[in-house]
Description:
The chain is α/β, with parallel strands linked by helices. It has helices spanning 60-76, 86-89, 97-115, 119-123, 142-155, 170-180, 199-203, 222-231, 245-253, 264-267, 270-283, 296-305, 353-359, and strands spanning 3-21, 24-38, 41-47, 129-130, 134-136, 159-163, 185-189, 213-214, 236-238, 259-262, 287-289, 339-340, 360-367. The protein has a seven-stranded parallel beta sheet with strand order 5-6-7-8-9-10-11. A four-stranded antiparallel beta sheet has the order 3-2-1-13.
Amino acid sequence: MKLEAVELRTVALPLVRPFRTSFGTDYVREALLVRARTDGGDGWGECVASTEPLYSSEFVAAAWLVLVDFLLPRLFAAPSLAAADVPSLLGDVSGHRMAKAALEMAVLDAELRAGGVSFQSYLGGSGDRVTPGVSVGITPTVGELLEVVSGYLDEGYRRVKLKIEPGFDYEPVSAVRELVGDDYMLQVDANTAYTRADFDHLARLDDAHLLLLEQPLGEEDILGHAQLAKHISTPVCLDESILSAQLASDAVELGACSIVNIKPGRVGGYIEAVRVHDVCAEAGVPVWCGGMLETGIGRAANLALATLPGFRLPGDISATKRYFAEDITDDFELVDGSIGVPHGPGLGVDVDIARLERFTQRRELVTRR
Length: 369
């Protein structure tokens, strides 16, 4: 293909309820969308960076800048372009994995749509449906948490993930375990909120018989996670620490985790995400697909990824209505505890342009110079 132009947009989609983590509270999802215009057709990508650099050093405004000033010129300079070439073409730019992932995704979508190939087939997945979990943010009270979780149980979710932080951990987790029963899949996510001084406190969570404890310590503290894994019986899962297949391999070998959360944006794209999956599968380590409040564009891609064989645990790919009253694509619905995987060319979903225009805050068309 030849990349002719790229359209960037930020859209603001109100969340159906505030989503609080140890990093802060989101009320609106501000998403940066990338539309690659090629001589073979268009493709869509989504940058999962947040508005502020809290979960990651990347944020929407910075991603926009690096796309326009550094990443797009490198792709425009290529006489021809294939999605598999994007990582190497952008490799000399340090970091900015989320921006790179969005661009790779848009080029890949265009390429696959032109070739009549689905995202799932390209990634190596199979199957028609994915069993998702649901991520529940921190609530003002335990009572409110139980009410929210009860609603998701009624909707048919088969796994719940609770966000925790110091002061909101053992009591709410114990209460939810009592609500859902001993056999229900329950896990927690700390988003780096604890330190090595909290090992004994985190060990109390063993009583809840959790599926996993996700990213309790800082993203750079691989040694601390390895030490914690020996101190508790709950399996440790890494999220923010996993930026590449190499880091995933190292973390597993060092005993820092026995489960890995794969977020394609965090590792630089779906091509690298498959590599992370492969090294974990070779090591016998189960993986699952994390969520970043994606629109239907990112949700479709994540569903395709989650059909690879190593994704043995439910991911954070909830139904559309979990987050948005109205999305920019058709809704993904939970039916009998699972969500259908798109099988059409590319991402297999179409963007509703009228909705897109209504939610758009900023737009820029970048062309070859």
